[in-house]
Write a structure and sequence with these properties.
elongated; 49% helix; alpha+beta; 7-stranded mixed beta sheet
Length: 432
């Protein structure tokens, strides 16, 4: 079970009319920015015309015993979060997305998930918000839990529209909205390597840990490691930036080839220092941002067993840069994986909450720019070791302007010194 919720606020919108379950089912990946796998998705609707509002995703709990509390929490998160943004939902649409298990049919899966759909509908009703539609999407077909008419909703389900042929697909293409593949595919490109290179990377991490640990326990040595880490990061970003352009499907493979195992190990361990990580967060815009994002993704893939927990730092940096660049779906996936890796990773918690609440990343960008400028001005006068970006919640964030028309949709121990907050299973507004 993915224990972290994921929600989004409304995005800039254009007028689109969706008629019936078929078009709702087809609209889901455009609402989320990816095809959700093994997920409960809930979308708030506002006004008489059903304008899309906040949306929330949770991995389907594996145990049916978890369904009732999960349903209550999800309904409360969506309704209360919408209220905090200034508009209580008038209705909700629910999607249950899962592939059939081995030997299971799509219709069998639909019936297996029917109690979860009913619990979600009941939880929403208890908050006086009706569920307009509840759909199961599986194996290229969809089923409605709300329609009893077999003439339009047969037991075998209805086939999904061919990709790119619906009104939502046309509107998304016109608006430049991208669907980045499936959630599973997006998580895979950030997952630890499973190839033969994983053993070499583990050996490099073992060796780097034995060399760096004594230095990290000494203040002067820690400052030296921080400088080395940031200098290495700059060299690697330059190498990635100057490499020949690869086709998108091969870019991750090419990036992995450009970074040596020893280099990756030194970077991964160096980023476990909070202040070093926060300095690295300053590469967040312009030409720096693209190469930094590629580096953080590559380092996430190098956190092989038994170093998986070290991935929280590069995953959080990847999420931050993606959010700063306007790619909210990729940001939520990276930050969700960081929190899955370490639920108490404070930087990821704060960024994820801010992203989910629809806050403007410019507030944090200004803070980081100010820290960089102030540090540059002090250079030569005093050490800048104690100065670090304040990566907490902005004190006066600006929210994205709520649209008025119908929907264009839009987390280890002392070695990391990251600072922790007590984890909570209840999210205030969406995925933490």
């Amino acid at each position: 079970m993915n224990q972290h919720h994921e929600s989004t606020g409304p995005a800039d919108e254009q007028q689109i009319t969706l008629r019936g379950p078929a078009e709702l089912a087809d609209a889901l990946p455009y609402l989320m920015g990816f095809h959700p796998n093994d997920s409960v998705v809930m979308v708030a609707l506002h006004g008489g015309r059903g304008r899309f509002g906040g949306r929330l995703r949770l991995g389907i709990p594996q145990s049916p015993e978890e369904w009732a509390p999960a349903a209550e929490q999800l309904a409360e998160c969506l309704v209360k979060g919408s209220e905090r943004r200034g508009e209580r939902p008038d209705a909700i649409v629910i999607f249950l997305c899962q592939d059939p298990a081995e030997g299971e049919s799509g219709s069998g899966l639909m019936e297996r998930l029917r109690p979860l759909a009913q619990l979600l509908r009941t939880a929403c009703g208890a908050l006086d918000v009706p569920v307009l539609e509840a759909l199961c999407i599986s194996d290229g077909r969809y089923w409605s839990y709300c329609c009893p008419d077999a003439r339009c909703c047969p037991a075998e389900g209805n086939r999904m529209a061919m990709p790119g042929t619906s009104v939502m697909a046309a509107a998304a293409a016109y608006a430049g909205i991208q669907v980045r593949g499936s959630l599973r595919e997006m998580e895979t490109r950030l997952a630890p390597l499973k190839t033969s290179a994983a053993a070499e990377q583990q050996h490099a991490l073992d060796s780097a840990g034995a060399e760096l640990m004594p230095r990290l326990l000494d203040d002067e040595g820690r400052e030296e490691v921080a400088r080395e880490t940031l200098d290495l990061a700059r060299r690697l970003m330059k190498r990635l930036r100057e490499a020949p352009v690869a086709v998108p499907s091969a870019r991750d493979i090419d990036d992995d080839r450009l970074i040596g195992h020893d280099e990756a190990a030194a970077m991964i361990l160096g980023l476990q220092d909070r202040e070093t990580r926060d300095r690295a967060a300053e590469w967040m815009e312009g030409q720096e941002a693209d190469s930094a994002l590629r580096l953080w993704r590559a380092l996430s893939r190098r956190c092989v067993a038994p170093y998986e927990e070290h991935a929280a730092a590069p995953l959080t940096l990847a999420g931050w840069v993606a959010w700063s660049m306007g790619d909210e779906p990729s940001a939520r996936v990276a930050l969700g994986l960081a929190l899955r890796t370490d639920p108490a990773y404070t930087f990821a918690q704060l960024l994820h909450e801010a992203c989910n609440q629809g806050l403007d990343p410019e507030t944090l960008r200004r803070c980081l720019r100010g820290e960089r400028s102030a540090r540059t001005g002090r250079r030569g006068h005093r050490t800048d070791r104690g100065v670090r970006p304040r990566a907490g919640r902005p004190t006066a964030p600006r929210r994205k302007k709520a649209p008025s028309g119908p929907g264009r949709p839009g987390s280890p121990g002392a070695r990391r010194r990251s600072g922790r907050a007590a984890p909570s299973r209840r999210a205030s507004d969406g995925e933490r």
